[in-house]
Design brief:
The complex is a heterotrimer of chains A (about 260), B (about 475) and C (about 450).
Chain A: H1 3-11, E1 16-27, E2 30-41, E3 45-49, H2 56-63, E4 73-81, E5 84-85, H3 93-99, E6 100-103, H4 114-125, H5 131-144, H6 148-151, H7 164-176, E7 182-186, H8 194-207, E8 212-216, H9 220-226, E9 229-234, E10 237-243, H10 244-249, H11 254-260
Chain B: H1 3-28, H2 40-75, H3 80-86, H4 89-110, H5 114-119, H6 127-133, H7 144-182, H8 189-229, H9 232-237, E1 241-242, E2 250-251, H10 254-285, H11 288-303, H12 306-326, H13 338-363, H14 366-374, H15 379-408, H16 411-416, H17 434-443, H18 451-484
Antiparallel strand pairs in B: 1-2
Chain C: H1 24-62, E1 67-76, H2 79-82, H3 90-93, H4 98-116, H5 125-129, H6 135-146, E2 154-160, H7 163-169, H8 175-179, H9 186-197, E3 201-205, H10 207-211, H11 226-257, H12 262-274, H13 279-293, H14 301-326, H15 329-337, H16 342-371, H17 374-378, H18 403-411, H19 417-447
Antiparallel strand pairs in C: 1-2, 1-3
Helix pairs in contact in C: 1-19, 4-6, 11-14, 11-16, 11-18, 13-14, 14-16, 15-16, 16-19, 18-19
The chains are: A alpha/beta (about 260), B mainly alpha (about 475), C mainly alpha (about 450).
Amino acid sequence: MNDMRIADRTVSTDTAKMTARGVQVYYGENHALKDVDIDILGGTVTAFIGPSGCGKSTFLRCLNRMNDTVAVARVLGEIKLDGEDIYDKAVDPVTLRARVGMVFQKPNPFPKSIYDNVAYGPKIHGLTKSKAELDQVVETSLKKAALWNEVKDRLHAPGTGLSGGQQQRLCIARAIATSPEVLLMDEPCSALDPIATAQVEELIDELRSQFSVVIVTHSMQQAARVSQRTAFFHLGNLVEYGETGQIFTNPQDPRTESYITGRIG
Amino acid sequence: MSIGLITLIVLGLAVLGFILGRQRALSAVKGDPRTLHSLPGYYGWSVFLFTAVPALLLLVTWAFVQPIALNSHVSAMVPEADVASYGSTQLVMADVRRIADGLDAVARKAGLDEVGLEAMRADLTDMRGRLAEVGVALGSNVVPSVLDAAKEYRSLSGELRLAMSIAVLLAAVAGLLFALWRINPKQRARNLVEQFTLVLLAGCSLIAVATTFGIVFSLVIESVHFFKLYDFRDFFFSMTWNPQFRGGSDLGLWPLVWGTLYVSFIALLVSVPVGLMAAIYLSEYAGKKVRAFAKPAIEILAGIPTIVYGLFALITVGPFLRDWFAQPLGLGSSSSSVMTAGLVMGIMLIPFVSSLSDDIINAVPQSMRDGSFGLGATQSETVKQVILPAALPGIVGAILLAASRAIGETMIVVMGAGAAAKLDLNPFEAMTTVTVKIVSQLTGDTEFASPETLVAFALGLTLFCFTLALNVVALVIVRKYREQYE
Amino acid sequence: MTDATSQTGLPGAQPRKSLHAADARTRRRNASEARFRFFGAAAIAISILALIVLLTSVLGNGLSAFRQTFITMPVALDAKVLDKSGTGDIEVMKKVTTIGYAKVIEKALTAALAEKGIATDGLDAKQISGLLSQEAAASLRNQVLADPSMVGQTVDVKLLANGRVDGFFKGRVTMDSAKLDSNISPEQLELALKMREAGLMSVSFNSGFLFGGDASELRPEAAGLGVAILGSAYMMLIVLVLALPIGVAASIYLEEFAPKNKWTDLIEVNISNLAAVPSIVFGILGLAIFINFMGLPQSAPIVGGLVLTLMTLPTIIIATRAALKAVPPSIRDAALGIGASKMQAITHHVLPLAMPGILTGTIIGLAQALGETAPLLLIGMVAFVREFPGAPPEGFFDPASALPVQVYNFTQRADPAFVERASGAIIVLLVFLLLMNAVAILLRRRFERRW
């Protein structure tokens, strides 16, 4: 059994939580992602940056097999979570996604109450044994998402009635309620105003203590603000991956430098 | 001259007007179209429209007004006493019209000319016999005043027909000359034609309103007649439906409403789960191949006329249910039953429910599905807990529309549900519905002014109000729902 | 198993298990997923099964209506009986009624049987001629009057057999049922079998079903759909001529010109409601307005056509507006930008581009109208009509039937032979609908444009 190995890895925050080797993605005929190798570390915020259509969102969606829902997408190569291949036949994407949560570009609360939105994940995965326990999970998740104080008096109001920033934090609370190990965020601030963006960014930094966070972003400033490690994608290739500070101050690849200085993108 | 011929002549004149107008415009500028305000064709069109439209409008109006004027004039000729023997003015006029039609045939058969026809007298000639010979069967002997009225009707309607022909043709010619006379190079023919066309277009859009008005008007007027003859309390609060030929009928609404609702309920019980699940399967699960085959197959069900479903109920489903369920279970021995009609109507409504639900499910944004999948929900959990709740208002609207269809459906219940008005719970019993009774009361041989016939209009009004309310509520819900997702 | 420590610290967080081994709960969820999927597939299966049962029921009952039992035999057209004056004067010949022709046929049938050596023991002349349809004499009379030169000769004539004999060959009537039947006896059926062996009787294609008029309750073998098909064709013509231009005009106004105010909103709500008003209500409208108020004749295609026009208008308007909406505004802008008026932009550019959509919608509306029955019942189309209506436009005012109403008529008659006729009529109706829809699909395929 490889349980020992898993335990070993999870103890240290600097070892790789997820590893990808030789990942190729095809959308029909289109070769969208070419040969990506990357290690996502535990307890870190990793930012994916790059111009539109560079494959960063595509790769993010490979990490919890969201690409399965797109009929024409094909994923080749190997992605491992704690040393286990997530594209193995025996893996049920449903259980995988409970461990690798996702937050989307546009806030997409369900047309249910705030409480039901957060409780949805724990309910379908059967994570709680009693109503009291579920209440506890909802409260903790909302607190972690820095939303509790704003909504604690109206937990049964519809989630769609919140402001854009609140909705996005609700979606984050919803994602962390299933206590995932990795949290994927696909441009979580692109639909938000600057104040809401600041709130969410602050939140991401706090989440780092418990989850590995992977964030796709358009904004280099945002990547610099929130992430410890940064990966730069260009035309379906992973161009450069390293410490955020090093990528922004001393890029190794000329393409990275052009993008960071604003010449491409 | 017949209406068809007049229309053709008017259209011919209009085409002539087009050619003349175009030529006149061109000759006014010595063949150089550039000095005209508009393209030469527009001058032609302006003449065409001025020739055809007023004349044809006059024709249609005349066709509407003439019968009213004629009726009121001729019915005044029949003395009160004779009207009383018929029962109502309406019935007298029906006979007058039939005799007037018959007179032509009589004249042709006997080789009579106008004078000979005029000389015919009801008390001397056996009018009833002679009319019967030419296929006009009358219930009683011809009363002299009625024959006179019929003669008057005949000659007047002939004269009016002639007058109409002349008036319409005059209008066409006048329009043609007027438009031709107005043509000059500075005339803004294009604007004129476009204005005219716009008015025509707007007029066409009013036909829908006119139709609704016509429906309400005819239902209300005849219902008022009915309630004059029959107490509305007996109609709305009685529990028996038992029409009699010789009067003294019980015309209670409730047995019919019960049958209607019972059949519709069974139809929805069949169509809603099947239609909804089919829509879910097609939009969420089915692969390309299944969809390419199943979707058109279900749409074929929607394109089959209701008479086919009616026949299916009559010759296949009814006997099947009777032989395999009703009789073995001791529940009845009738092949037409609530179950038969409900089941077949349910099949008819499957495509209706499924295509409406399909639209509505597809309107739920993909981001909602992504959110749920991203949390690790299975597809069925996503459908049951996210998509269906999100689509609920739209689906409720679809079900209401289906219910309105079921309530208004006629042929399936006429051929499958039976004709006995009953308040019963047994679904294998034959019962009847509002629409069945509308058909049977209006196609039977009862006289038109009797409550037994007029009740059909009150039933129609009830049906119209009921379905209208359902439709309006459903449309409002669906519209709100669509706005929610833009 | 070592506990893979919960590092997230959330309440409810549970020890992680391997991704590769599904736990009980996941298996349960997957089972419920499979169940749900099965229900979906079952719903599809039920719908398709219903369609198949429906079509087989109709085809199974109706295909036999296209074949009919005929008796073919030489008939001596005796001039002494049929043309008493001997001058060939058609007016004089018309005086001979069908009874005279029946006698001629009876004689010919006895002679034909004798010639083939078929014994007719125990059957009297009436029973023998009972094998023939009661329509036979009338059809022979029509043939002779159409061609008086036949009189005096012996010609081979093909005559309809009685409906029960026809049913016997189609399996509807059996020897057992004939014992209880006052219209036919087993002996007569024996004779029919012998006649078939001798080649006097045969089952062949029944053109009378498609082109003949209706026949009375007692002669199901002679009932045809000609009048109904013609009546339906007249009504479709009226619907097309009225509903298409009016519908397109109304849609253009509402979609392109109408100001957005309460009044046009009312019109729109009105149209979507009209599309959902039960069809029978339109029948009441037709009865009250067109027949009672305007005095148009009952059972006439013109009234049916007008009622169906009003019913079809909403369908056409809705389809046309969708087609107009699908033409992108850039087309309008392009035309307006080079100085075309709005009306020109629409008639020259938008309308031609929207035409395939409009025509598809119109054909679908026509197909609906063709299958509509209930409103036609109320305007008297249910009456028994044998005579063909005249040529249009006068023929629009003659009594006629319509295909779906004819189906209903057939089902109201007692003789079981009419079930076959009704199903056969449905097959004809469905073939027409199929053709119309095929045209609509072709139009869509051929001209569909995606912007």
